[in-house]
Amino acid sequence: MKCRRCKGRAVIDLPRHNAAFCGDCLIHMVHGQVEKAIRHFKMIESGDKVLVAVSGGKDSLALWQILAALGYETEGVFLGLGIADYSSEAEQVVQRFASDRNLTLHVTSLTDSFGFDIPTAAAKTRRSPCGSCGLSKRHILNSEALRLDADLIATGHNLDDEAAVLFGNVLRWESGYLARQYPVLPASPGFARKVKPLVRLTERETAAYCIVSGIDYQETECPMSAGNRHLRFKTLLNEVERDAPGSKSVFLHQYFDHIHERFAGDASKDELMDCHRCGTPTTSELCAFCRLADRVSDPVRLVAPTVDAGVGHV
Ligand code: FES
Ligand code: ZN
Fold first, then answer.
1. pLDDT digits over 141-154, tens only?
2. For residues 95 and 116, what is the distance between their CA atoms, to the nearest angstrom?
3. What are phi and psi of 69, to 5 degrees?
4. 106 C-alpha vs ligand 2 centroid, how far in Å?
5. Is residue 235 part of a domain?
6. Is 14 inside any structural domain?
7. Which ligand is located closest to the Cα atom of residue 83?
8. What average pLDDT score do residues 138-165 get?
9. Which atom of ligand 1 is the closest one to the Cα of 130?
10. How far apart are CA 224 and CA 222, in angstroms?
11. How many CB atoms are closer than 10 A to CB 37?
12. Which domain range does residue 96 map to?
C-alpha cells in the first residue's frame, strides 16, 4: 500500500478518499481538511483568541494540536465532570499534553464549582447522564470563554459525531435542532461563538492523527455512555459507510451546504431574559443549567471559581 502523496509506505487506508497515506502525509491531509473547514465556514478570523474545550479524548487533543500548529492563538479549558477515575485520568492526560507543549490550560470542575457531579445529576434527575453532561459542558465552557475574553470556543466534534446527531434530528424531524446544527454558531449577547473545525474528519482519521503525531490520549470510553443513542446511530452509519464509502460525509456536508438554510426559520425566536441567578440569556427565570443545579444540589454558588493552570503548568 503506497502513500498517495509521496509514494512512500502508507500506514492508513482511507476508502472514502480512495487513498492511503504515510504518517507525514496523513498529518498534511488532516491539517488541510481543518484549514478547509475553517475557511469554508468562516470559523476563525485572524487575531482571534481560541479557547479549545479539551476532554482528554483523541478528538479534542488532536484539535488543540492542529490549531496550535496552524498558528492560531489557543488556550485550552478542561472541565472535570466528577465521573470517578475516568475524570481524574482525563485531567492528568490533558495536563500532561499542555505541559509537554507549553500550552496554557485552564482547569475547572463541576464538583468544586457547583457541588455536584454527573453521576449524582443522573441519579437525581433520573435522566440520561449525557443530557446533564452536555448541558453542564455547554453552560460552563461558555462562561469560561466569556470570563477569559476568548473570541470563540472550539470543540472536537468530528464528522461521525455530527452525522450521528444529524441522523437523530432527521429521524424525529427536530426542526429547531436542525436549525442550530451547523459548524459555526455566531456569538450573541451572553454567548461566545462556537465552532467545530473537525467536521471534515472521521474518528478513525483523528485517532490515526494522534498516533502518528505522538498524542497520548485517553482511550477509555466514558463509563456512563451505555445506552447513548448517538453511539447506536454511529454504528448504523458505519455499516452504511462500509458498503458505500463517503456516504457519511455526503450526508453531513450536503446538509450543511444545501439543506440547513431551509430550517433557519425554525430556530427558536422566544424572547430571552437574563437568568436570575447566573445572568445567562434564557427563556425562563432560571436557565436550564441553574435548574439542573437546583435539582441536584442546594444551595448553588453564584460564581464558579476556576483554577487557572497557567502556561505549561501541571
Ligand atoms: Fe455521556 Fe459520558 S456522560 S458519554
Ligand atoms: Zn443560570
1. 999 999 999 999 99
2. 22
3. -65, -30
4. 22
5. yes
6. no
7. 1
8. 98
9. 1
10. 5
11. 22
12. 43-215+229-296
Residue 131 sits in a domain whose CATH number is 3.40.50.620
Stated as kind and residue range, the H or E segment containing 108 is strand 104-109
pLDDT band with cut points at 50, 70 and 90 for residue 261: very high
191/169 Cα distance (integer angstroms)? 23
Instruction: Report yes or no on 314 lying in a domain.
Output: no
Q: Are 313 and 105 in contact (CB under 8 A)?
A: yes
Give the tens place of pLDDT for each residue, 192-249: 999 999 999 999 999 999 999 999 999 999 999 887 889 999 999 999 999 999 999 9
- What pLDDT is stored for residue 298 in this prediction? 60
As for how many domains the chain has, the answer is: 1
Residue nearest to atom 3 of ligand 1 (CA): 130
- Local confidence band at 126 (pLDDT 50, 70, 90 cut-offs): confident
Looking up cell 440547513 gives: 260
Indicate whether 263 pLDDT > 50.
Answer: yes
79 touches 86 (CB < 8 A): no
Mutate to test the pocket of ligand 1, among 110, 224, 234 (most ligand atoms within 8 A of CB): 224
Q: What pLDDT is stored for residue 37 in this prediction?
A: 98
- Residue ranges lining ligand 1, Cβ < 6 Å: 118, 129-130, 133, 222, 224-225, 228
Give 206: exposed, middle or buried? Use CB within 10 Å, 0-12, 13-18, 19+.
Answer: buried
307: helix, coil or strand?
Answer: strand
Q: What is the H or E stretch that residue 203 is in?
A: helix 203-212
Q: Residue 55: which residues within 8 A CB-CB, separation 6 or more?
A: 78, 90, 94, 156, 218
For 104, the grid coordinates are: 496554557
For the cut 80, the answer to whether the pLDDT of residue 313 exceeds it is no
What atom of ligand 1 comes closest to residue 225's alpha carbon?
4
Between CA 279 and CA 287 the distance in angstroms is 8
The DSSP H or E segment spanning 207 is helix 203-212
Q: Is residue 33 part of a domain?
A: no
Q: State which H helix or E strand residue 136 sits in.
A: helix 129-147
